[in-house]
Hints:
Family: Belongs to the zinc-containing alcohol dehydrogenase family.
Largest sheet: 7 strands, mixed
Bound molecules: nicotinamide-adenine-dinucleotide, zinc ion
Order of helices and strands: EEEHEEEHEEEHHEHEHEHEHHEHEHEHE
Keywords: Metal-binding, Oxidoreductase, Zinc
Distance between the termini: 10 Å
InterPro entries: ADH-like_C, ADH-like_N, ADH_Zn_CS, GroES-like_sf, NAD(P)-bd_dom_sf
Strand content: 15-25%
Helix content: 25-40%
Mean pLDDT: 92
CATH topology of the largest domain: Quinone Oxidoreductase, Chain A, domain 1
Organism: Pseudoduganella ginsengisoli
Shape: globular
Domain Alcohol dehydrogenase-like N-terminal: 25-144
Number of helices: 12
Amino acid sequence: MLAMDYRGPYRVRAAHKPDPHIEHPGDAIVRVTRSCICGSDLHLYHGLVPDTRVGSTFGHEFTGIVEEVGPDVQKLKPGDRVLVPFNIACGACFFCERELYGNCHHTNPEATAVGAIFGYSHTAGGYDGGQAELVRVPMADVGPTVIPDDIDEDDAVLLTDAFPTGYQAAEMGDIDAGDTVVVFGAGPIGIFAAKSAWLMGAGRVIVVDHVEYRLEFVKRFAQCEVVNFREVQDMALHIKRMTDGLGADVCIDAVGCEAAGNAAQTLTGLYTMMQAGSATALHWAINSVRKGGNVSIVGVYGPTFNAVPIGNALNKGLTLRMNQASVKRHLPRLIEHVRAGNVKPSDIITHRIPLEEVSDAYHIFSGKLDHCIKTILVTPG
Ligand code: NAD
Ligand code: ZN
């Protein structure tokens, strides 16, 4: 089969790899029809995630047709059209029982923190991902959801991660009616966090980024105010001035560790790691929220970014919440929002690029080129 192939920082290609097969009775093989590139893939691409092995296949946002199921699989059959949440979860452990699928204990037992994720390095279980023609889906009765006939597959693929993660970001912010919510990051996650903040009763939503076309997009898509941080000298002061001197009720970090520029060399990648170490969006989120406010973090920080401005957070009496999204928990509600026309997730798709051109696709998404917001990799079959 054709699949994305990681060669090292800033180097990916399409390559022929052996077809996956059923390895455990609970597995399914899915023929991928749509897979996306996520901001999380960029951390792998930029070399910021440890134990990302050469030869691995990324991709944790995908839909497809079930090709084959193992003998223990009961809820799926060949031919089913499915969306597959990015979390690989057992459905039965302490965490899954509490719907914390993103923290499943069994699928990634060696990790101290994260649950397993498709195509996300050996720190997240070492499973191959869905930027491929075929993918093995473990625990196939737990995560995959048959796509209802009235839901468009372009919308469905955004329910595997981007929309649920944005939604969970807003949910963790514990928004009260009328609250002012500031979202850092106007990528797919920030865009859906802004949209979700309204669904949860926010009174005002402000999105901060520096990529002008993304700010224009989110202004339209989520009817929010926007701030270009390149035009601001002191972010916390700026947000305070916008909010009667108090600060925002809720701040959401939808950025995580950010690579600078559109670098294409490993050397620049190293420079990038030093820059990203400042965790600017997280600092801004903590410093821009009002005293006693809530900070919700879904932006991903690799282990080298474990320092937080904890002193300010303590002195301000903040509530900090963060997690990997638990996609499955949100699906019933989000499918209803899509059905009701409250959100049209596929509106954020700007690019459809053949899997053969995966290298260009990463280059464009990473560099925020060509007005890119969300890319779907199209498989030949
Ligand atoms: P993206 O790269 O498309 O978007 C990030 C945006 O942040 C960009 O538009 C960039 O210009 C902007 N940005 C950079 N520095 C900023 C700053 N200091 N302040 C404000 N904006 C800034 O990525 P995405 O797909 O939207 O993902 C965003 C983050 O969410 C990533 O860290 C990703 O790993 C993470 N994520 C987390 C989960 C989860 O479950 N917790 C799931 C998916 C993605
Ligand atoms: Zn993702």
